[in-house]
Amino acid sequence: MKNLYELLEIVYKTQINFVNVFEDNKIYIFCSKSFYDYFGEVPDAVELRGVDFKKAKQWIEKELADQIHKKKTREVLNLNIGKRDNLSVLFVMKNKMLIEIQNDEMQLFYVQKNHAKIRELIDKMIPEIRATKKITEKPKTE
């Protein structure tokens, strides 16, 4: 019987339909497959919510500039109002890390041996990238 990592490696080696690659429910699969494609390992991941997209993108571009190998963006242009917005940005880092920011979420994919470094990085970035708007829960209705 195969363990989880062996099964994930089989999944990652298969082809993905890239037409649907950026759908919200497929972003974890896309990023972890991309990580596997770049680094040949099944990643661990941390997801942060309540992130300010622009602050996070700018912080990574400034503070981690020397570690960025590639940056890929996805943006939308609303023709009705002439406004362009970034929907997501993907950073492939030189130190076996992949960072994806989409809306108010950030996912960090990394190899297990970098776990302590990732925790330090998260502690350093949280005060700088936290969204200022508080998300309130909807009142429960009975």
How would you explain this protein's 3D organization?
There is one protein chain. With 142 residues, the protein is α+β, with helices and mostly antiparallel strands. 35% of the residues lie in helices and 28% in strands. It has helices at 4-13, 27-39, 53-63, 115-129; strands at 44-49, 68-78, 83-93, 97-102, 105-110. The chain has a five-stranded antiparallel beta sheet with strand order 1-5-4-3-2, sandwiched between helices. A hairpin with a 4-residue loop joins strand 2 (68-78) and strand 3. Residues 15-25 have low confidence and may be disordered.
Short description:
The chain has helices at residues 4-13, 27-39, 53-63, 115-129; strands at 44-49, 68-78, 83-93, 97-102, 105-110. The protein has 142 residues and is an alpha+beta fold.
What is the element layout, followed by pairings?
Layout: H1 4-13, H2 27-39, E1 44-49, H3 53-63, E2 68-78, E3 83-93, E4 97-102, E5 105-110, H4 115-129
Helix pairs in contact: 1-2
